[in-house]
Specification:
mainly alpha, 15 helices, 0% strand
Length: 319
Amino acid sequence: MDHSGHGMDGMNMDLPPFTLSRGLEFGGDPFFLVGCLLGLGLYGWAVVRLRRRGDTWSVGRTAAWALGVVTVALVMCTKLNDYGMAMFSVHMVQHMVISMLSPILLLLGAPVTLTLRALPAAGRGRKGPRELLVALLQSRYLRIITHPAFTIPLFIASLYALYFSPLFDFLMESRAGHIGMMVHFLAVGLVFFWPIMGVDPGPHRPGHVMRILELFAGMPFHAFFGIALMMASEPMVDTFLHPPSSLGIEALSDQSAAGGIAWAFSEIPSVVVLIALVFQWHKSEERQSRRADRAADRNGDKDLAEYNAYLASLHARSR
């Protein structure tokens, strides 16, 4: 099938050769543009609501959320979205950012915690938005879709089952299909990293060691996928088989570049998440230590006194 004029209703035919400055020009995809503006606006509203009633909210969390939204906007609301319909390498940048970097930054913003704190509680016997969110967080449905037995296979299938099946070509035939695929990548990334990050409350809250194991269970498959694309001797995806001549690229070398991007990117989230987990672990140990110190202060070192008395009684018995 010839895809030389394919993508976004033939708009790719006259794309000039790719440069970073051309790729980062404003493209204004309406779906993601509205989503990003809503994301920033609602988060800002919630922070202001907390501050007005005298509560604090971490500047770091706000910055992480804003940076997460900006990364989504950079790959979806610029000309990268146009080039991503015609170039496998640019598409892979979009995929990696929106599925592995943006979700981590958004989750570090603790949006669920912020929402729970910002929404007012409904009156007794009534159910408002806050109560519905709490019910969702405790639901069996969420317990299933955040369990590693579900998230890890989904994370892996989003690569292999999509790219190496006719579904990818079908979705890439239209702008709506492409946007739907990117929404899917973002959702899968959020579901995969949510229990691992452990910032927001959720039904699946493993310990720090389990979180690290979950992280490393998914990451190598991205590296293998990247290596498979780099080592292939022929183009593996029909969509990018005939890039527009105006781009001046060759399909196989562009696929190899896409593989390199997938391979290299698999390391980035691992490092970011590991740093976040080690920091959380340290904070958790500090909190436990402070709690133990406060408990000791409250009972006047009663435990220590009892232990000393026990030792003294042993000593008296042995004489």
